[in-house]
UniProtKB/TrEMBL annotation:
Keywords linked to the UniProt accession: Hydrolase, Membrane, Transmembrane, Transmembrane helix
Source organism (scientific name): Pseudozyma hubeiensis (strain SY62) (Yeast)
InterPro entries: AB_hydrolase_3, AB_hydrolase_fold, GDXG_lipolytic_enzyme
Pfam families per the UniProt record, alphabetical: Abhydrolase_3 (PF07859)
Taxonomic lineage of the native organism: Eukaryota, Fungi, Dikarya, Basidiomycota, Ustilaginomycotina
Transmembrane segments: 49-72
Protein name (Swiss-Prot/TrEMBL): Alpha/beta hydrolase fold-3 domain-containing protein
Keyword set includes Transmembrane: yes
GO molecular function: hydrolase activity
Record-linked Gene3D superfamilies: alpha/beta hydrolase (3.40.50.1820)
Alpha/beta hydrolase fold-3 domain segment(s): 237-439
């Protein structure tokens, strides 16, 4: 049997077979040999440090001039970027805008976390080094003394809120995640949702990625690998934002402001996958690492697919929709009783739906008051190499607004949240209406309402727009109390969607 047959036989199985059990897929021996030969990728250290240094040398001194000017400007409401903001919010959002524009200007990125690396040890020095690297201290679990003693948590055994996810094996990978057998691999992968060459370098199957737990209560010990007790509560498999090129699952904004607050107010444990950033990890590596995180919850921690919600903010929402598409398209490779598997719901916060500009008016209308600049998207698209993939940027793998009506109808329940003053609010509304139309739901909704009513739209599509809020306001320090109101609604929505399973 040829090498091509090994790849294409498993690919077509989803359409030609209705088997209810996970198929034992043969993997091309050339692919196995390539994985065996491969060595883990080596992240760059010097260039990120130099970029960070240049950023700080410029940003800190000039801030002593800029911030007082912002304060003077914001005294009068009509001179604020949005006159509906409070003085504190107006000043802080201007500072965040300045931070974001200079992060883009200098190309600032944290150094990739590495298992066993200095920044991921359980020491004070490691914590300081991580913060200086814009990576943050990590997850959020405060353990009682008896739990610490029971789990023997120390520098040898590690923290319970930080885990290292083993890379998913090649038997789970097909289509867009098919593994290259070598630099000259000329195979053609043929599946229902992807036709083209293998895209994933074998070296990524040698690289573990970090994930951080943010539990719904501070003293809750998260599920441990191969525990005798199966988890009984739902969990959120989460992906942070940042255009695929910035931020980190454990930093102050994505970790403490968003994930920790989300977990505590929605009442759900958040498993935040710290996928690697581009260009170190070009597309589709981030999708592969997202899949590895999801499979870790299933295979190592014992969660059933029906317990695992998938969510993210901004680019993390884009990655959420990519992962859902892969899980649905290749479920015959991933699950026992594949045909009965259901994903309970998706949470899309300030979602990035269309890397290809489809002329959404809010992109131009709101860019003058939003924290992100349109060049942020350009950086993400370029660094991830989305324009270099063997399919156009308009393909549904990249532009989720181009999903077919049948695919939209197949999506699980979605909770979509936007800020009313963000550049991406129109595409959030567009995507919500696409889903409603495909599912035969009413196209209108009470976007401005804060309270989610039981059974609203059967919970299948909920779109919440918080008036006057910026992109990803969930991460902004001054807006956390507003974000918490949305998380409470999501917690209610999660309870409702559990009744649909």
């Amino acid at each position: 049997m040829s090498a091509v047959t090994f790849e294409t036989k498993s690919s077509s199985a989803s359409s030609s077979t209705s088997s209810l059990v996970r198929q034992k897929r043969q993997v091309d021996p050339n692919v196995l040999a390539a994985i065996k030969r491969a060595t883990p990728p080596k992240p760059k250290i010097l260039i990120p440090l130099l970029r960070l240094l240049l950023f700080q040398l410029y940003f800190l001194p000039t801030s002593f001039i800029a911030i007082p000017l912002y304060m003077l400007r914001c005294i009068v409401p009509r001179f604020r970027l949005n006159r509906n903001w409070s003085f504190i919010s107006a000043v802080y959002i201007m500072v965040v805008r300045r931070v974001m524009r200079n992060l883009i200007r200098f190309g600032v990125q944290p150094i990739a976390p590495r298992k066993g690396g200095l920044r991921d040890r359980n020491t004070l020095v490691a914590t300081v080094a991580s913060c200086l690297n814009l990576s943050g201290p990590g997850g959020s679990v405060v353990l009682a003394k008896e739990n610490i003693k029971a789990l023997k948590l120390n520098a040898t055994h590690g923290r319970p809120d930080k885990v290292w996810i083993p890379p998913a094996g090649p038997e789970y990978l097909d289509g867009i995640l098919a593994v290259k057998a070598g630099p000259n691999d000329r195979r053609k992968i043929v599946t229902d949702v992807y036709t083209g060459p293998p895209l994933l370098d074998a070296k990524w199957l040698k690289w573990s990625i970090r994930a951080l737990w943010f539990t719904h209560k501070p003293q809750i010990v998260p599920s441990q690998p191969r525990s005798k007790n199966k988890p009984t509560r739902p969990v959120m498999c989460y992906f942070h934002g940042g255009a695929g090129v910035t931020f980190n699952a454990g930093d102050l904004h994505m970790g403490q402001n968003l994930a920790k607050t989300f977990a505590r107010h929605a009442g759900i444990d958040v498993f935040s996958v710290d996928y690697n950033l581009a260009p170190f990890a070009p597309s589709p590596v981030q999708l592969y690492q997202a899949l590895s995180g999801y499979l870790y919850l299933v295979d190592e921690l014992g969660y059933a697919p029906e317990q695992i919600y998938i969510g993210g903010d901004s680019h993390g929402s884009w990655l959420t929709l990519q992962l859902e598409r892969y899980l649905r398209s290749y479920k015959h490779l991933l699950f026992e009783n594949a045909e009965s598997v259901k994903i309970p719901g998706l949470v899309l916060l300030s979602p990035w739906i269309a890397p290809e500009d489809l002329s959404f008016r809010s992109r131009e209308r709101n860019v003058g008051q939003d924290i992100i600049d349109l060049s942020y998207e350009d950086w993400g698209v370029s660094a991830q190499g989305l324009n270099k993939l063997p399919f156009p940027l308009s393909d549904p793998w990249n532009t989720h607004a181009n999903k077919s009506p049948a695919e939209c109808a197949a999506l699980p329940p979605c909770f979509i949240a936007n800020g009313g003053s963000e550049t991406l609010v129109d595409e959030g509304q567009h995507f919500a209406n696409m889903l409603r139309k495909a599912k035969g739901l009413p196209s209108s909704t009470s976007n401005q309402r804060i309270i989610l009513s039981p059974g609203e739209l059967n919970c299948k599509v909920v779109h919440h727009v918080y008036p006057h809020q910026v992109h990803d306001y969930f991460t902004v320090d001054t807006e956390i109390s507003k974000a918490a109101k949305v998380y409470k609604q999501i917690g209610t929505w999660i309870k409702f969607t559990q009744t649909l399973l």
